[in-house]
Amino acid sequence: MSGYAYLLLCCDGSCYCGSTNDLIRRLAEHRAGRVRYTRPRLPVLLVWYEQCPTLDQARQRECSLKNGRTRRKKTDLMIRTFPRERLAPFA
Hints:
The protein is of the alpha+beta class.
């Protein structure tokens, strides 16, 4: 089963990084306030995602994005260069 690693931009300017096997369902959970971190930071906007062959690989990708000293620079670059048209189905 495939998985997704994703980044959300919260209204306070923070980024949330997660992984899931159903991106549409997970976004609905975030937008409905069912996720503890993003609930007080609504609204959230999907700004980047990557489809992975398995959920385990998506979780590994999530962990790699959360680690490292240059994490914020790396994620900012990923967000800036991600094709906006790929986000349309999830708006």
